[in-house]
Queue: 2 jobs
Job 1
Amino acid sequence: MVLKEKLVMDRFAEVVKNRHDYAREWKQRTGGRVMGYFCTYMPEEILIAAGMMPVRILGSHEPQDVTERHIYSMFCPFCRDCLAQGLKGRFEYLDGIGMAHTCLHIRQAYSSWVLHVPTKQNFSYYISMPAKPQSPRARPFLIKELEAFKKAVEEWIGRPVTNKDLDKGIEVMNTNRRLMRQIYELRKADKPLVTGTECMQMVCASQCMDKEEHNKLLAEFIKNELPKRTGRDAGTRLMIIGSEDDDTEFLAMAESLGATVVADDHCTGSRYFWNEAPKSEDRIAAIADRYIAKVPCPEKDWEERRRWTHISKLVDEYKVQGALMIQQKFCDPHEFDIPPLMKMLKEKKNVPSLFLEFDVTVPVGQFRTRVEAFLETMQLEM
Amino acid sequence: MVEEKKEYWRWTEGLYLNKDIDWRKAKSITLGVDIGSVSTQAVVLTDGKIYCFASIRTGSDSPDSARKAVESALKQTDLKQENIHYTVGTGYGRVNIPFANKTVTEIACHARGANYMGGPTIRTILDMGGQDCKAIQCDERGKVVQFLMNDKCAAGTGRGMEVIANLMAVPITDIGRLSFEIDKEPPPVSSTCVVFAKTEAIGLMREGWTKNQVLAAYCSAMAHRVVTLLQRVGVNKDFTITGGIAKNIGVTRRILNELKVDMVQLQPDPQIAGGVGASLFAADLLEKQRKAAG
């Protein structure tokens, strides 16, 4: 891939589009292992410490007919789309596959993958991430889980993962988080210097490329390209909230209608990178702390709704005027949260929201009408 | 024997001209074009009053349908398209109207049009379109407060009703009336799915149901489907229905019965609400444009 002459944002888009070529080239270039993972509770710090490149399994938004035998069709389209990528052989370069538990749907995709999609080195690992991180017992439990995971990784690569390695893993991940936060700051401006589509592209790129390279590109973007940007009229300031969503095409459509997505609560957005791992002598405990304290997926946000506090804060800080509630069809944890969340946004923040149910592909015409009509309720002068 | 191929789905296309209006005296002549998936309307307002309109079937080509609707509306008068000051496009095909100055969604336009035709007391509008349904709440100006759209499926919509008309070999304009010519209201069919309609209808006929009973069961299932949508958005008085199905009493009466509300019947034609709304938005935009130009 000849990427050097291109603008950073175009490079991110290209990596996302050609993520498999990128990963194959990375392997060839570095001789390193590539580990695929589902959902964003996988402690990538440990994988980077072990010299690997973690890549998140995402779908392709193409209709498919290969998962019917493995996953019920009333499981979410995202988990089916992910598994389809494996069954179609698109991730054939993976050396191992893993997940830290989030929901049953994605676990089914993971389990089917382990059964039916061979990885190069036949390594698979399931971390039992606690379903209730708010419990005081979650932290000690996760520490033990992560210690066991680290041990399994050490056995796999045939060498110990030292504290120095872990420091590097933590530093690479934290740098990425810091840089992404820095870029998200720009969205607070009246004339944001980056769009929501670009931000989603950046985060998706981060999930499927070498983090150190991603960090370098982010730094280059901040240093060389941001100063040349003038920003755009935000129009209506929108926030997107909900299930896994990497549909940049939909987002670009929404942003073409006189609106800018200035904030998000998605695992392909702020939920992925918002908090850092703290400094601690016990590196594994520091990593566990990070995943316990992370902005939770609604599957893990119980009984206190900590994600809502995060969302409220973003609404205030980014001056959000309207919210698009994105729900992957059949994603029960989000479906459970969305009605009271919409109510809370309306009553406490005076922010109206539009509910949209996503599938592998979305009916663009219909969705355009809905988003446009929603924006008209805020924009049309009568 | 060659059987005559009847088009039972064919609904009455509409034409209207207010002969009392002299368009030459009008300061503002605006056009609203609503291209839906099944029907297209062109509505001309002169100084905010309905001057003429046409409601025709949408063809396979949106720009062509828009042109035909405008031609039909203007054929009744010597007003020419170049005399029109501002045009707003709406409906599914709104982005494909070459002569539109601006587009506004059909959701905003139906609310505005219903407010104009039904008065400022209208708060809830059910737009039963060709391929989707929208439950809309608006304020006293006809501005949308919130709305819900049915999902990705033509069940309980105009197109669904057309399929049933063909299937049962009953002219679509007779369905409403016939659906009440029964002894006892049958239970609604279990599926309003356009694809499964045939199987279910044949099954019911085989069980000895009369044609009218089957029609009643379909109308009732369609009504129930949109009632659920309406209940989610909330039904505040006054209530009205726009779109082609507003003319089908088999569905509308059953909706009213289930919701226990009355509806305001829109005159002259509930199917033109989107076009009227678009034309009203055109009038606003024209005024704004003229003000800006001094």
Job 2
Amino acid sequence: MLKIENLHVEIDGKKILKGLNLEIEKGKVHAIMGPNGSGKSTLSYVIAGHPNYEVTEGKIWFEGEDITEMDPHERSALGLFLAFQYPVEIPGVNTTNFLKTAINSIRKSKGQDDIEPLEFLKMQKKKMVELGMTAEMLKRGVNVGFSGGEKKRNETFQMSMLEPKMAILDETDSGLDIDALKTVANGVNNLRSDDKAFLVITHYQRLLDYIKPDVVHILADGVIKLTGGAELALELEEKGYADFIKTEAA
Amino acid sequence: MANIFKLHDIEEKQMENLPEIIKNYADDSKLLENSSNNWLNALRLTGLEQFKSAGLPDKSWENWKFTNLASLPNYDYLPANSNVSDANNTRLLENSIKIELVDGVFKSCADFDISGLKIVSLKSELENDPKWIEEYLVNIGNLGDNPMMALNTAYINDGFVIKTDSGIKVDRPIEIIISSSTGNANYPRNIILLEESSNLVIFERYLGEGEYINNSVTEIIVKDNANLGHYRIQAEDLNAYHVAMTSLTIAKSAKYDGFTLTTGAKLSRNEIYTKMIDADSSCNLNGIYMVQAKQHADTTILVEHFEPNCVSKQNYKGLIDDHAKGVFQGKIKVNRKAQLTDGYQLNNALLLSDNAEINVKPELEIYADDVKCSHGATSGALDETGLFYLTSRGINPTDARKMIIKSFISTVIEDIEFDELKSILSLETDKWLDR
């Protein structure tokens, strides 16, 4: 589903990713773990098409299509979703209108008509309950006045509404208490299916207790240092990054 | 009837150095006919003299560093010549009492049945009941400091006069459509007086066709416990010149909620001088300016606090595109007696093109020691992170850009205390963004 080949990325002339390779198949959940500054967030931004990050070498394919040069909205229309580590506040634009605009933009790019308002409201109500969002939150400006946890819930809620083929969760666990973590994980698990894939980026193993990964990668110094099963995350938790990366490098 | 003005003999040499527009006023035949009110004749004369001796303000004037009136065209005031098409003159507010001003002349006012509310033309009030308005026309301040106000004073003739009696709560908004036509210079002089404990909402819309000058002066008095909502949309023709001076006096426990949307005019100056003359009053002087092409929009505000415990807020948002220029000069002056003043001033400008320009001059002048005053100004390009967030959700870049811009101005719209205006402003914004 997603294939990344020899990816080199710079921001403001600083090299962050240095020849990263990654392949994620349909139906799988991959986790990327790594220390601060290893390039985890850069990777998520680059897959989503952030304009400030420059791909100097390498390619990204999604469902067989080269998306390396695509704009973010085109990637979204293909079925990619990024849950932000720091969701942005948009005052004056309420979440309902924002999501309706997003859904209709994606539908339009596929040549489909706008979603029926009633169908939209039904779907919104169902997912809202599922993710512990309130009607009041949806009336407010996007993320305005939301706590850290509420923002992450809102990210998961948006993901659930947009029904992407592949979602990248960038440190979705940071700033969450255990209840919010379970709700968010539950939202993700409800979306898991044979034709969807997830890339979970996290610093800690904790989230992976609730979203069980099929594959775990360790990212350090701009490349994938090590790939293994779910047990790799536990091992990492035990030994710590420094020790781990050093051992591997030796 | 003969002109009453005795003009100074301006030496030939000196005449040559004067801008065309001022030379024009040295010509007797361009002046107004004599009024039966001697004080008015004297006042007009003072206005003219002051304008001629001061000349057009330029960079050497403290308050005119960023706005140059040198290109002001040389048009006559021709009150009899008014001819504006009625195309744009439908009301925007469903329940409003409509007033029309055409080329500076009060044309009509819809019938209404509200006792204690007076709406008349300045011209008729000068004929029928000039006594009470004399005070408000004469005591407007030092004309020598304000040549454009002096020029307007030289041409005091017509405009609107709105007055509420004590305790009158007017439940219908007044909608004033001020339209102008090409080749004219208009000098409407308006008075809004709210007597004690009265309430009123006024909505002014400025429209026009072609190149013209609209130089208006509005004297507003909000007496004790009165409440005025005063909203303006300045959508003059993009070739027009709009210089609006507002002199606002707010008395004890009174409230003024003001908002101006500026989208029109080639060059505009929206100048508001507010005096908070007694305790416990509040005022909002908010607005949005959206300018494009080579437009120039200047907002200049002075709020002066004289007595304790008053709140004043200035909150402006600017959208500046193409080669347009914005100017925001805001000053809060807190006099010695005005303890516990809460003064706030903010101007945020969004520069939508590399050639867009904003000039900001925020000032605080404080002589009291127990006050809370702040000012701030920001300018910058569209928020990249916000754009990325929206586009990453599938929203196309054009729509995302509009959403971010609407988000940028949303807070100042939310603060308006007259809900009907919010949807009108939203439509005006969409129109501007889709132009």
